[in-house]
Specification:
DNA polymerase, domain 1; 2 domains; 13 helices; elongated
Length: 362
């Protein structure tokens, strides 16, 4: 096996975390081992959440020795944590092997505990209300690094189990499509511990070709779309990606996703004073929500002043609470399902839109 592994890997260790069940089976078969070894390793890594080969007591000693020599499991290491004294929200900072920092957030609620995970180091989309967009972009995370956020957070947060996951941290998941899909495929396996795919939501700023590709895959998570305005001019100011993919293109792709997956879409809507909280905005939302099986998630704008923003980013203000509450009340009177994601973790820059970690100079 040593020769075959060395030949396969060119002396570079294979990172097993991030490989799907099929890939692990194929890996061991190519190494001259039985395919069921891949199933065993899969269960150890994703089911038992083991990160060292010595603990895998149903794997022969000779194989464990070779795995230690030619493979590795760990992709991230814990760096630090901050906790909000008012809400119990925790922000974990993890470090990649190439010394980048990424953030994941635990959001505790009465009936569930949600983990918000990242898919990229930074983000290339430059949304004007998002701290991650202002920090720039370095690279995509691997499927292993995406999963490791769940594994490490589960071990670090012992108050109660994580029940839900949202791909809503740093980065645009659909611009890291293959690794996002692989991580979802891992979560979807019965042998993976703790999370059902029904409890996982992927949030996107709107990449229509990838929304359609995800709809055509066998993996069908819940989908959330960062809407924020139904007027292209306004949305393009807030989200430059709208200049490439219009609202109409996105809604067409979302309708396809809903039809293919038989799921209900979530429209995310951060409210800004005098920008998207007007009467025209209200009635456009009513028309949209009447045409889709959907729910609307209203989000008060969280300050990104810690990023020292300029331009429109510095001008954005949250809708006054009375206006937001009235807006929500009127939507509910129209029989639209509306939730309000009240700010949690803003005191530690962990609320929606606030995740950012300044890159160190190379």
């Amino acid at each position: 096996m040593q020769e075959k592994l060395a030949e396969t890997e060119n002396i570079t260790k294979t990172v097993l975390k991030g490989l799907t069940l099929r890939e692990l089976r194929d890996f061991f078969e190519a190494a001259g081992e039985k395919r069921f070894r891949g199933e065993q390793i899969f269960e150890w890594i994703y089911g038992h959440m083991v990160d060292d080969f010595d603990s895998m007591d149903n794997i022969p000693k000779y194989l464990r020795k070779k795995l230690k020599e030619f493979c590795e499991i760990i992709t991230l290491k814990f760096h630090s944590v901050e906790e909000s004294p008012s809400t119990g929200t925790r922000k974990f900072i993890f470090e990649t092997k190439d010394n980048y920092k990424i953030e994941s957030v635990i959001i505790p609620e009465a009936k569930r505990t949600t983990l918000c995970i990242s898919t990229q180091v930074g983000c290339p989309l430059d949304c004007k209300f998002c701290a991650t967009g202002l920090m720039g972009y370095r690279r995509n995370l691997t499927a292993g690094e995406i999963f490791d956020q769940f594994l490490l957070s589960s071990k670090l947060y012992t108050v109660k189990p994580i029940t839900n996951i949202v791909y809503m941290g740093m980065g645009e998941p659909l611009l890291n499509f293959q690794n996002t899909l692989k991580s979802l495929e891992i979560f979807a396996e019965e042998k993976t511990r703790g999370i059902s795919l029904k409890k996982i939501t992927v949030s996107t700023a709107g990449i229509p070709p990838k929304i359609i590709e995800l709809a055509n895959s066998k993996i069908k998570p819940k989908l959330a779309f960062s809407l924020h305005s139904l007027f292209d001019e306004t949305r393009s100011k807030l989200m430059p990606i709208n200049k490439k993919y219009s609202i109409a293109e996105n809604l067409e792709a979302i309708r396809y996703y809903v039809n293919q997956t038989n799921t209900r879409i979530t429209f995310e809507y951060v409210m800004f004073k005098d920008l998207n909280d007007r009467e025209d905005d209200f009635y456009s939302l009513v028309r949209l929500c009447k045409s889709f099986p959907c729910k609307l998630n209203i989000i008060p704008f969280n300050s990104i002043s810690h990023m020292l923003p300029t331009g429109i980013s510095a001008e954005l203000k949250p809708s006054p609470k009375l206006r937001l509450d009235e807006f929500v009340k009127r939507l509910r009177e129209k029989d639209i399902t509306v939730t309000v994601r009240y700010t949690q973790g803003s005191d530690i820059a962990a609320a929606c839109g606030q995740l950012a970690y300044k890159f160190e100079k190379n």
